[in-house]
Amino acid sequence: MNLGHYTTALVFIAASAGAAQAEPTAFKFDKGHADISFSVSHLGYSMVRGGFREFDGELTLDRADPSASKVSATIYTYSVDSGLEARDRHLRTADFFNVVKFPTMTFVSNTVKPAGRDKNKAEITGDLTLLGVTKPVTLSVTLNKLDPNPRTNAMTAGFTATGKIKRSDFGMSFGAPALGDEIQITINIEATEAATKAP
């Protein structure tokens, strides 16, 4: 191969590699390193905190065009855990999550928009379906890290997301106004490239 052909080949390989890196990448939630939690005001005295122990989710990360990224999650409402079993039994009833009739809630993103100048921050708006009602919800998301996991060498993404909803928007009004209407949501997720297994 002469030098001209060799140079052409290198350019082609580099271009191909760049295209491959720009392709959207699918990730699955690593549930061993993830947390979905909420908090709500109790009589204005304190914030009662809880979370969900069972959930599944995946995301597609497009590094070339972040606005084309997307995420979806399914949360199993029967796994609600507020740290007090008597309260959790009540939360599973028709007064709250009605887990017999609605065993899951889902979130499916629709848009991803940059949030300010920080390239690692975005606002994700999607449809949250809870108790059979679907409403738009916006989450403020920070990409904490995107690198190969030093233990597994699998490409891993770490995110923190926060948002607020009104439970009354979904027909959950029991206990109001003593129990607050606004629910604060905090989500911490590690996700592993779908081509590999989570550690």
What is the gist of this entry?
With 199 residues, this protein is mainly beta. The protein is 14% helix and 53% strand. It is globular and about 45 Å long.
Q: Topology, please?
A:
Blueprint: H1 3-22, E1 25-42, E2 46-52, E3 55-61, E4 70-76, E5 80-81, H2 85-91, E6 104-114, E7 121-130, E8 133-148, E9 155-166, E10 179-193
Antiparallel strand pairs: 1-2, 1-3, 1-10, 2-5, 3-4, 4-6, 6-7, 7-8, 8-9, 9-10
Describe this structure as you would to a colleague:
- This protein is 14% helix and 53% strand.
- It is mostly beta strands and 199 residues long.
- The chain is globular, with a radius of gyration of 21 Å.
- 18% of the residues are buried.
- Mean pLDDT is 89; it is low at 1-20.
- It has a single domain, classed as Beta Barrel (Lipocalin), CATH 2.40.128.110.
- It has an 8-stranded antiparallel β-barrel.
- The longest helix has 20 residues, at 3-22.
Tally the structural domains. 1
Indicate the structural class.
Answer: mainly beta
Largest sheet features: 8 strands, antiparallel, barrel
CATH class: Mainly Beta
CATH topology: Lipocalin
Relative helix content:
10-25%
The CATH superfamily is identified as Lipid/polyisoprenoid-binding, YceI-like
CATH architecture: Beta Barrel
Work out the strand percent: over 45%
Secondary-structure element sequence? HEEEEEHEEEEE
The low-confidence parts are 1-20
